[in-house]
Amino acid sequence: MTSEFRLDISQARPFALEVALDCVAGELLAIVGPSGCGKSTLLRMIAGLQHAASGEISLNGMTWFSGKTALSPRQRSIGYVPQHYGLFPHMTALDNVRAALHTLPRQEQINRAGEWLEKVQLASLARRKPSELSGGQQQRVALARALAAQPSILLLDEPFSALDSITREGLYLTLAELKPQLGIPMILVTHNLAEASLLADRLAVMDNGRILQHGTPAEVLQFPRNRRVAEFMGVRNILTGRVLSSASGQAVIALGEQTLSLPRALPLGSVQRWCLPQTALALQPSQQADSTLRGTVHNLIRLGDEWLVTVALPGTEDMLALQYPATEPLAIQQPVGIRLQSRHIHILED
């Protein structure tokens, strides 16, 4: 039977939460959102360190939490990797991993702890204490300890946030290599969108104690549900316009003094908020006859070999952001044209 984790909880105090999630074996679900949105609180509830006011948490049909049940963290068999490692400073790396295996005979503890240190590429440092290890090495020990006892689920609470980029990338590879072998649900809490997109099979975007959207990283990035999700996913081009006409599956929407045709029907007269990726835009250094839109360069920021160009549009405060080769000359207030692929326009919910 496929291992499946399910959660459906709610509470009003002390922190408002209303969350429904699921995660199957071998899948990594990333819960992403700004600091203070409730991510870590949710993870602590899954671990049994806190309890919601109401709802249910279960794994493989076994109830961990409900109105009548509240299993302890040990009863839930959780593998937990906290943000700041949580290692015992007086113990060696080997003994820190052994601490998760206290129910086994001593020699079996040593053997299994050694095997897991080898899997996370730390076998040669087994006798070192945490103070003698780098941050990345300490995090590998914490990961080995979390997995050594063969947990039913792995919880990762901002596990890479305190590490430099090179060390983080090494740990990403380690986790990616281990994931197919584990065969358990895995839940990662992070505010780092790039990290979540790289590691996760599915994303759940969280804000103010609620899940705003969930899906694959590509789905959430390409089709954000609303403005809040779009902003969190780093979508720069979020615009607003009124529908001027709509017939035969085509709509014309106002964009300041200009109009756009969209290949879809929309309610006549409605105000629509929409977004589109930078890849759907191409800048023309002059306003040409085939330009979809016209505007002026509002700002230029050089990023490596490209300009990040912000284009002001007449009759609206909305602007478009796109990239353009830095080898081509551009100037502030320069009139430009934009070719726009309207099929990539995505309408946002209110």
Question: Can you describe this structure?
Answer:
The chain has 350 residues and is of the alpha+beta class. It folds into two domains: 4-226, 3-Layer(aba) Sandwich (Rossmann fold); 238-348, Beta Barrel (OB fold (Dihydrolipoamide Acetyltransferase, E2P)), CATH 2.40.50. Helix content is 24%, strand content 35%. The strands form four sheets. A six-stranded mixed sheet has the order 6-7-8-3-9-10, with helices on both faces. A five-stranded antiparallel sheet has the order 13-12-11-14-20. The chain has a five-stranded antiparallel sheet with strand order 15-19-16-17-18, with no helix packed on it. A hairpin with a 2-residue loop joins strand 12 (250-255) and strand 13 (258-262). Helix 4 packs across helix 5 (135-148) and helix 5 runs parallel beside helix 6. The longest helix is centred in the middle third of the chain and has 18 residues, at 165-182. The radius of gyration is 25 Å and the shape is elongated. 33% of the residues are buried. The mean pLDDT is 92. This is Molybdate transport system ATP-binding protein. One of its GO terms (biological process) is quaternary ammonium group transport.
